[in-house]
Amino acid sequence: MMGPAHSLSGAAAWLGVGAAAAAYGHPMPWPVLLVGALICAGAALAPDLDHKAATISRSFGPLSHWVCEIVDKLSWAVYKATRMKGDPRRNGGHRTLTHTWVWAALLGAGASAAAITGGRWAVLAILFVHMVLAIEGLLWRAARGSSSDILVWLLAATSAWILADILDKPGNGSDWLFTAPDQRYLWLGLPIVLGALVHDLGDALTVSGCPILWPIPVGRKRWYPVGPPKAIRFRAGSWVELKVLMPVFMLLGGVGCAAALNVI
């Protein structure tokens, strides 16, 4: 799928988690619902860091281009080192390592560890990165073009600072789910894991599938492209994605938000 659909699906997924949490008697404070949805929307773009034309590779200027090249080479090296006889030969690393559950888990664990050990500045950095990605994904038309990059960064930095201040207030969610004094913001890794996995599931619906199960072998393939029957898959950016899935994601997100806030 393309960036906007990925971001919408990520936000909808976290709002759905908020609805489930409310149903099971552990509701999210509204700042957690909001921040988690934005982080999940941003994190749903992160697996495409292995593709030089992806939204995330353009979101932070030369820095993200440089990181993209490194991740692409790393992914390709891991693919070549672990491929089985049934896996085809490849010339690049797109849709390999970064599109697996292992990568999603590592990203989430790393973010949680940074949040609880790095203090406020680490939290701000995590929020800033994901606010930039959320803006680029959800407001792609307004954020399109290099001339708007600085405005996006300023908006993301301001939003990160304000949201961190709100979360820090008692009862607003810095200690949601994990209540020990040394576990504040431990939950920040959850929307990051969820966003990456939702991205992978979205890509699994397309014609190429997604090797989300790696390194678990399936038959003669370690990089098995998980997906539904090929007859019901679609191409990224097709009318199915734009006219069907994106409206569905918006509807599900709205319902999830209302349920999470006990409006319905």
Automatic annotation (TrEMBL):
<keyword id="KW-1133">Transmembrane helix</keyword>
<dbReference type="Pfam" id="PF04307">
    <property type="entry name" value="YdjM"/>
</dbReference>
<feature type="transmembrane region" description="Helical">
    <location>
        <begin position="122"/>
        <end position="143"/>
    </location>
</feature>
<feature type="transmembrane region" description="Helical">
    <location>
        <begin position="150"/>
        <end position="167"/>
    </location>
</feature>
<feature type="transmembrane region" description="Helical">
    <location>
        <begin position="97"/>
        <end position="116"/>
    </location>
</feature>
<feature type="transmembrane region" description="Helical">
    <location>
        <begin position="32"/>
        <end position="49"/>
    </location>
</feature>
<keyword id="KW-0812">Transmembrane</keyword>
<dbReference type="InterPro" id="IPR007404">
    <property type="entry name" value="YdjM-like"/>
</dbReference>
<feature type="transmembrane region" description="Helical">
    <location>
        <begin position="244"/>
        <end position="263"/>
    </location>
</feature>
<keyword id="KW-0472">Membrane</keyword>
<protein>
    <recommendedName>
        <fullName>Metal-dependent hydrolase</fullName>
    </recommendedName>
</protein>
